[in-house]
Amino acid sequence: GDAAAGKAKAAVCAACHGSNGKAQIPTYPNLAGQNEQYLVVALKAYRAKERSGGQAAIMQGQAAALSDTDIANLAAYYSGMK
Amino acid sequence: GDAAAGKAKAAVCAACHGSNGKAQIPTYPNLAGQNEQYLVVALKAYRAKERSGGQAAIMQGQAAALSDTDIANLAAYYSGMK
Fold first, then answer.
1. What CA–CA distance (Å, rounded) separates A79 from B1?
2. Quick check: B54 and B46 in contact, CB under 8 A?
3. ipTM of the complex
4. Contact predicate B45/B51, CB 8 Å
5. How far does the CA of residue A42 sit from the closest CA of chain B (Å)?
6. How confident is the model over A1-32, as pLDDT tens digits?
7. Would you list the domain boundaries of chain B?
8. Interface of A with B in 14-43 (CB under 8 A)
9. What is the assigned CATH class of domain A3-79?
10. Residues B17-29: pLDDT tens digits?
11. Which residues touch B24 (CB under 8 Å, ≥6 apart)?
């Protein structure tokens, strides 16, 4: 993935997951430094509605707007963050 | 949660997520330093089978064996790890 393109796409993510990849909300995950391939798996699982319950509906909606390329780019961006 | 009790319960977790909370498998998440409350949410979602697809069945099985107290203790353990 292209981390610079991911950053450009990440403004909406930052509202909950922090501009530094540290979640602002304790029930939400930090993303900074997370495994790149796991981030791809997780985003695709939300997009496929394989994650539900709790606040998962928010991520289902967000991920629905993402292409495979967007997901790869976002994963590169957050995994590379310290 | 009680981090020491969590550590005692975490031997099986370490096989995939690392004894240092850094996953040995790139498609699996690091847990070290993750938000405690998020870890509780995620484990309960797996236990409730609200996460499926891919390798989620592995975590459904693992989480099925955990009580609410176990989950709280594991979350305390991994969230406190650097």
1. 28
2. no
3. 0.93
4. yes
5. 9
6. 999 999 999 999 999 999 999 998 999 999 99
7. 3-79
8. 23, 26-30, 33-38, 40-42
9. mainly alpha
10. 999 999 989 999 9
11. B15, B16, B17, B18
